[in-house]
From TrEMBL:
<dbReference type="InterPro" id="IPR018520">
    <property type="entry name" value="UPP_synth-like_CS"/>
</dbReference>
<feature type="binding site">
    <location>
        <position position="40"/>
    </location>
    <ligand>
        <name>substrate</name>
    </ligand>
</feature>
<dbReference type="GO" id="GO:0016740">
    <property type="term" value="F:transferase activity"/>
</dbReference>
<feature type="active site" description="Proton acceptor">
    <location>
        <position position="75"/>
    </location>
</feature>
<protein>
    <recommendedName>
        <fullName>Isoprenyl transferase</fullName>
        <ecNumber>2.5.1.-</ecNumber>
    </recommendedName>
</protein>
<comment type="subunit">
    <text>Homodimer.</text>
</comment>
<feature type="binding site">
    <location>
        <position position="44"/>
    </location>
    <ligand>
        <name>substrate</name>
    </ligand>
</feature>
<feature type="binding site">
    <location>
        <begin position="203"/>
        <end position="205"/>
    </location>
    <ligand>
        <name>substrate</name>
    </ligand>
</feature>
<keyword id="KW-0479">Metal-binding</keyword>
<comment type="similarity">
    <text>Belongs to the UPP synthase family.</text>
</comment>
<feature type="binding site">
    <location>
        <begin position="72"/>
        <end position="74"/>
    </location>
    <ligand>
        <name>substrate</name>
    </ligand>
</feature>
<feature type="binding site">
    <location>
        <position position="197"/>
    </location>
    <ligand>
        <name>substrate</name>
    </ligand>
</feature>
<feature type="binding site">
    <location>
        <position position="27"/>
    </location>
    <ligand>
        <name>Mg(2+)</name>
    </ligand>
</feature>
<dbReference type="InterPro" id="IPR036424">
    <property type="entry name" value="UPP_synth-like_sf"/>
</dbReference>
<keyword id="KW-0460">Magnesium</keyword>
<feature type="active site">
    <location>
        <position position="27"/>
    </location>
</feature>
<feature type="binding site">
    <location>
        <position position="216"/>
    </location>
    <ligand>
        <name>Mg(2+)</name>
    </ligand>
</feature>
Length: 249
């Protein structure tokens, strides 16, 4: 170290303000594989590693919540061999990812309707939860949405609330927006500030419908397996230059 320490640039990644909650629609795995003459499942495998890299980076730069769309309620429509490949990927990946992310101080969570997943994967998700619990409630969190659908989530919330009304625990006039928020899979986290969709598609595909009311969207043509920390930096810089009005002036 010399006499003078270099003053860090204001826009250096470690000095920028960052969104509290970033969500990603992890898209483009299949096209990434096809471009290389590989089976689609090879793209999912590389995409799973991208999740680990970006989730760790989010923690390092101070993003408290990182949430990704990994398997939608509509993805069951895919050919059986691709669905099987994705389930096998979850099988070989979830607990191992939770353990490696634990070492880096990131709590991995799984969100969605897990009731219809194969029994062994559900058991693994229970272990993932236990590993995350050990980090305590303030840990940076990386959530994987599996068998997640925004409409399905809202339907399930409505059902849960209707049950409370039926049981006489809640009066219909006492149902507020917060009641609905509290019955979603994301009840314990703030709404996403920034939602990123790679791969060039410009739609939500049923992701975080309720929670995204005032999210900022960022679209890029980069395919998810190619997505780098510098792509996240670019999305954050773009986000930081926006004026969020939330309906005000
Ligand atoms: C996203 O990649 C991962 C899942 C939906 C499981 P895709 O599999 O949708 O990849 P593309 O869109 O076909 O390239
Ligand atoms: C959205 O991607 C779901 C996930 C990334 C898990 P899709 O590839 O399934 O979405 P569409 O079919 O292009 O809308
Ligand atoms: Mg896709």
């Amino acid at each position: 170290m010399g006499l003078f320490t270099r003053k860090k640039k204001d826009n250096a990644p470690e000095n920028r303000p960052v969104p509290r909650h970033i969500a990603v629609i992890m898209d483009g795995n299949g096209r990434w594989a096809k471009k290389r003459g590989l089976p689609r499942k090879a793209g999912h495998k590389v995409g799973a590693e991208t999740f680990r890299t970006i989730a760790t980076y989010c923690k390092d730069i101070g993003v408290q919540y990182f949430t990704v769309y990994a398997f939608s309620t509509e993805n069951w429509k895919r050919p059986q061999d691709e669905v099987d490949a994705l389930m096998n990927l979850f099988r070989s990946y979830l607990k191992e990812a939770a353990e490696t992310m634990f070492e880096r101080g990131v709590a991995v969570r799984v969100l969605g309707d897990l009731t219809v997943l194969p029994e062994d994967i559900r058991a693994q998700i229970a272990e993932v939860d236990e590993i995350a619990d050990r980090l305590g409630p303030d840990a940076a969190t990386a959530s994987l949405c599996i068998n997640y659908g925004g409409r399905d989530e809202i339907k399930n919330a409505v059902r849960a609330i209707a049950q409370q009304v039926k049981a006489g625990e809640l009066a219909p006039e006492d149902i507020t927006e917060d009641t609905i928020t509290a019955n979603l899979y994301t009840a314990h986290m703030p709404d996403p500030d920034l939602i990123i969709r790679p791969s060039g598609e410009i739609r939500t595909s049923n992701f975080l419908l309720w929670q995204s009311a005032y999210s900022e969207y960022y679209f890029t043509d980069v395919l998810w397996p190619d997505f780098k920390t510098t792509d996240l930096d670019a999305a954050i810089d773009n986000f930081n230059n926006r004026n969020r009005r939330f309906g005000g002036v």
